[in-house]
Amino acid sequence: MTIVAVVYFSESGATQALAREVISGISTVEDVKVIECQIQPWDMFEGRFDNDEFMCLLDNTDAIVFGSPTYMGGVSAQFKAFADATSERWDSQQWRNKFSAGFTVGSCLNGDQANTIQYMATLASQQGMLWVGLDIAGGYNSVGLNRLGCQLGAVGHNPEGEVHRSDLDTAKYLGRRVAMITKACALQLQAL
Ligand SMILES: Cc1cc2nc3c(=O)[nH]c(=O)nc-3n(C[C@H](O)[C@H](O)[C@H](O)COP(=O)(O)O)c2cc1C
């Protein structure tokens, strides 16, 4: 069975709302199992992410979707601590050829969310993973998906505590896209 994990940090729930949409998009694809992995404050020890069980779960996946709020134009410290912990998989390129994608949310309409997604794509590349962006031209979707025009991943705007409906739907679309691509290619990639 194809397994897709959604790894995210969320403090006040907006990134979690996007994560739940990504998960619901993944769940629309038959024979794909989804695992929700939320980075918790108690996973941090002296500034480092330390949760072996969490990391081992991710080892056994075909794809990992990353999520973080945008903090000061980048990922949150808690997500970065998780990213730093993946360095233990880096030297052996243990996560090579897993698919990956990313989502984020900020309280500004253009609060440098794209920079957060760019970092996630860099992390994925460092791990030899394959990045899946959006195949939706911003402003050209009949139901308003990708209204913020970021094709590298799903970006949300959370002006007053609630993520815009169209951004939630975009996250769901991205989850389904990752699941479909992963399901179609995972076996061939494992053989490489
Ligand atoms: C320390 C900090 C830095 C932030 N920096 C940004 C930012 O650079 N751009 C932005 O649009 N929003 C920024 N925000 C707003 C958060 O991204 C926004 O509230 C988001 O919805 C939080 O996600 P969460 O509800 O999953 O915790 C910042 C919030 C905090 C607490």
From TrEMBL:
Keywords: Flavoprotein, FMN. PROSITE patterns: FLAVODOXIN, FLAVODOXIN_LIKE. It comes from the Bacteria. The keyword Flavoprotein applies. Residues 4-178 form the Flavodoxin-like domain. GO terms for molecular function: electron transfer activity; FMN binding; NAD(P)H dehydrogenase (quinone) activity. GO terms for cellular component: membrane. Gene3D superfamilies: 3.40.50.360. SUPFAM superfamilies: Flavoproteins. InterPro entries: Flavodoxin/NO_synth (IPR008254), Flavodoxin_CS (IPR001226), Flavoprotein-like_sf (IPR029039), FMN_Rdtase-like_dom (IPR005025). Transmembrane segments: none annotated. Its cofactor is FMN. This is Flavodoxin family protein. It comes from Moritella marina ATCC 15381.
